[in-house]
Amino acid sequence: MKFGILFRPQDPPDAANIVGRWREVLAAAEVAEEVGFDGLFIPEHHMMPDGYPPSPWAALGALAAITERVEIGTTIHLLPFEHPVHVAEHAAMADILANGRLRLGCGLGNFPAEFELYGLDPRSQVSRFEECIEIVQRAWAGEDLDFHGRHFDVRGRITPRPVGARLWLGAMSEPGVRRAARFGCPWPTDPLHNIHVMKDWADLYRAAGKEYGTSDRLGVSLLRDGWVADSLDEVERTWWPHIRADHWFYFEKVPRWVAEREPFLRDVTSEEDFHFDRHRIDRLVVGSPDDCVASIRAFEEAIGPDYLIMSFRMASGPGHEQELECIRRFGREVIPAFRTAPAPG
Questions:
Q1: Cα 31–chain centre separation
Q2: What keywords were assigned to this record (predicted)?
């Protein structure tokens, strides 16, 4: 199993220090490669006042330039908001700079306001997304495209082509995981749902791979939020307030949690209703190094992920030095439990 980090380059409330935040992200990226992580990933959303990155391409180039070994990528690039030929070309250049290390995780988008920004209709997002996927895959394969769909008319080919990039497809639903399997793409999960929901979707994803004959190209990249410290009490005191706010944002704004598999969610009406002692179970990777190893073992046994992609620092914190210490401890005291040879650094 590989280990990655999904960074959150945000500076609430109004992005006043967003330049400094990106410098911290790049410094953390170098530390992560040094202590044994395998991949570094960035997200995407639009019109967020805290400076949430609206485009991955410059950041991927920066990550490619300052690293040598780790994979770089997105979880998730909102593919329907950009012309797929541009995506294929931008990604090819990022992959070339990284010498084949790009893993482009793509999703179809959730927030209606983002579709309005681009003058798009959310009701057509699935068909648009699927046309984008097909065009990117065929462009990367070096085809002379003659594509005429509902949303795009494309004729020609891209150059240069990527040298090692892979396309991943994110999903937070049964149709979504079946789509990822149908297109033969690894699936990066969401970080929100518990182990039971993740297992059901992973089983469905792998069954769909057998149905479509794509099993040899599939893989599960499990996203989780977490923090390593001396104790659970320390995690609750220093980290939990930040992740609680983040999870409440998604619970309130993205009503796609599988409530029937998470019965405690029925009683949640405000951020304060998320309680650490309940919310962390079967969901977060937190506590001492031994606690974190035990949680990862449980996910490994239930889901069998190929990748575990962690988010440590949230938009509001903890601070940069605390983030670096967490990355170092996770790399040196957690990851080695899953290696057959010592991790570098």
A1: 19
A2: Monooxygenase, Oxidoreductase
Q: How many other C-beta atoms can be found within 10 angstroms of the C-beta atom of residue 83?
A: 13
Q: Where are the domains of the chain?
A: 2-230+284-338
Q: State whether residue 206 is helix, strand or coil.
A: helix
pLDDT, one tens digit per residue, over 245-259 is 888 877 777 666 676
Length of the chain: 345
Q: Find the mean pLDDT for residues 72-95.
A: 97
**CB count, 10 Å around CB of 52?**
19
* CA nearest neighbour of 28 among 4, 50, 56, 55: 4
Q: What pLDDT shows up at residue 255?
A: 60
Greatest alpha-carbon pair distance for the chain in Å reads 59
Calculate mean pLDDT across residues 173-177: 95
Closest CA to 128 of 112, 106, 151, 110: 151
CA dist., res. 3 & res. 266, Å (int):
33
Closest to 289 in 3D by CA, of 239, 226, 228: 228
CATH architecture group of domain 2-230+284-338: Alpha-Beta Barrel (3.20)
Buried b (16+ CB within 10 A) or exposed e, 149-182: eebbebeeebeebbeebbbbbbbbeeebbbbbbb
Distance CA 263, CA 51 (A): 34
Residue in the structure block whose two tokens are 């040598």 = 68
Most confident listed range (83-87, 110-114, 118-122): 83-87
Dihedral pair phi/psi, residue 249, rounded to 5°: -55, -45
Q: What does the pLDDT average to over 36-56?
A: 97
Angle (CA) 162-22-2 rounded to 5° is: 50
The answer to whether 228 and 323 are in contact (CB under 8 A) is no
302-310 mean pLDDT:
98
